[in-house]
Amino acid sequence: MISSKPATSSQQPESRCRRPSVNKLEKSLVEILKDQNTSSQERKVKPLPKAEDVKLILSDVDGTLLDDDHDVHPRTSEAIRHLRKNFPHVPFIPVTGKQRVSCEHVAKCCGLEDMPSGCCHGSIIYTPEGKIESQIGIEPKVVCDVTAVLRKRNKSVFIYEHDSVNCVALEAHPSLDFYEITKGYDPSICDKRGTDYMERVASGEVIVTKMFLPMEVSTVPAEMDYLNSVFTNGEDYRMTRALKDIIELIPAKIDKSVALEHFSKMYNVDPVNIMTFGDGENDCGMFKASGMSVSMGNAMAMPAQVSDFQTKTNNEGGVGCFVDSIFRPDYKPETDSGYASAA
């Protein structure tokens, strides 16, 4: 379903017993979005944009461009390729929690190899040639202290650099292999346990753009609560979630709106003419900063509430469906079965 809608209150909360950390996280997101923090009755319904109104598109990757099997739905790849060919003046840029190297399959499927990108939630900005233009890291002491705390709690810690993912702590879980789970999102993973890697982090030699903390979903609220009782969210780091079973820590002053601001200036496009796609809480910053925000049918509660529009799920090619509704509204695909190839 593609719809222009006010936020509804029908969406059920994730838990009836919510820990303070979850409430605080959502409260902070509402503060970011305070100019949109109105009741569903007060929010205005926007008409679907016209093609001439869209001058730049930014899209999340996991859960948005990628389906649940980490592939690109053909409706999405075909729509983006049509856009690039017939509307070359409208850049389509990935803005993601992933590394650029982990987006290569998406870029090949969708014809985005020549596009810049914002990675690790905007901590790293890449040029169209794939070179790092800017990079911001979490303070080394914070990284070391968070890692020490989570090791004691038998939790996994994966440290992201611009070109590698490094396992420095791994939960001993009876049935879940968090190393393999993380590898599914970012294959450039190394096991750094038992090495001098954390000494290099402490010295500042390593720039940590993100800390990735996968865990059983039922434990997430308690761990958020505990971390934010030891550290200060918004000063030591910014806590966010792209997926319900993964806590992510990024530099305190970073979110995807920083990447949006950068690309807005780079292409000289007013944010009102920027369209954004996403499904996670980490997308809310760029939703607020853009003139046209689209949440996926599989989106978490907060982005679904604050977006201007909703589309189908990632498994149904939701991004492609919405892009087609704007740039080729009369198009009817022969089939939505089969998957894109990066070849």
Per-chain topology:
Layout (H helix, E strand, L loop, with lengths): L2 E2 L15 H13 L23 E4 L14 H13 L5 E3 L9 H7 L6 E3 L4 E3 L5 E4 L4 H13 L4 E4 L4 E5 L8 H8 L3 E3 L5 H7 L6 E5 L5 H11 L7 E6 L2 E5 L5 H11 L7 E5 L5 H6 L2 E4 L5 H6 L2 E2 L7 H10 L16
Parallel strand pairs: 2-3, 2-13, 8-9, 13-14, 14-15
Antiparallel strand pairs: 1-15, 4-5, 5-6, 7-8, 7-10, 10-12, 11-12
GO molecular function: magnesium ion binding; phosphatase activity
InterPro entries: HAD-like_sf, HAD-SF_hydro_IIB, HAD_sf
What does it look like?
The protein is of the alpha/beta class. It has 2 domains: 51-136 and 255-327, Rossmann fold, CATH 3.40.50; 140-250, 2-Layer Sandwich (Hypothetical Protein, Haloacid Dehalogenase-like Hydrolase, Chain: A, domain 2). The protein contains 11 helices and 15 strands. The protein has helices at residues 20-32, 74-86, 104-110, 140-152, 178-185, 197-203, 220-230, 256-266, 284-289, 301-306, 318-327, and strands spanning 3-4, 56-59, 92-94, 117-119, 124-126, 132-135, 157-160, 165-169, 189-191, 210-214, 238-243, 246-250, 274-278, 292-295, 309-310. The strands form 3 sheets. The protein has a 6-stranded mixed sheet. A 6-stranded mixed sheet has the order 9-8-7-10-12-11, with helices on both faces. Strand 7 and strand 8 (165-169) form a beta hairpin. It starts with a strand and ends in a 16-residue tail after the last helix. Residues 6-43 and 337-343 have low confidence and may be disordered.
